[in-house]
Amino acid sequence: MQKTIRLLLASCNLLVLPGSAAAKSALEVGQPAPDFSLPDQTGRTVSLADYRGKWLVLYFYPKDFTPGCTTEAQHFRDAVPDIEKLGAAVIGVSEDSVKNHAKFAETYHLDYTLLADDKGKVAAAYESLYNIFGILKFAKRHTFIIDPRGHIAAIYLNVDPAQNPQQIVIKLQSLMKVSS
User: CA 42, CA 146: separation in Å to the nearest integer?
Assistant: First the structure.
């Protein structure tokens, strides 16, 4: 039952729930990004520190293989060459398992890192976790740009899965011009 509800909610691209991103985030541009260390789709542990000295796009999404999440993943896949030309990397994060992420990446030819936040701790640290009555938890659709020093450079809440990757490319170009 819980899995069915989670799939339905994740596929609906919900915009407002109690305690959702409609409320102002306490995370702010300029502050240090919350640290993380999670397994990727291959089982390798990936940490924020691995990206020190490099721009990082960290996006949270509810569920592998759901319509909105698949759209967003494919659009990021298509934007990765432009993002990498700017010297940045992309990481997607959801509560799905390493095994599910591996199938998702293989099915849709996703050539970037997907992290398994199975307990939702990293999503919670980034204020990107829906927690419905303590029973149902999944990541909100949020995107963060983290600068080479490990600070939050931009925050996107309640993103459009089809448009967010291109918005990120434009924002990265703008941020890099300013920091030059």
Answer: 23
* 76-103 residue pLDDT tens: 999 999 999 999 999 999 999 999 999 9
Q: Determine if the pTM surpasses 0.90.
A: no
- Give the whole-angstrom CA distance, residue 5 versus residue 136: 8
Using CA atoms, how far apart are residues 84 and 96, in angstroms rounded to an integer?
A: 25
- Verify whether residue 12 is a known catalytic residue: no
> Token digits for 11?
């596929």
Task: Give me the catalytic one of 69, 90, 157, 159.
Answer: 69
Helical ranges in the chain per DSSP H: 2-11, 67-85, 98-108, 121-125, 164-179
CA distance 52 to 35: 11
Tokens of 99: 């095994």
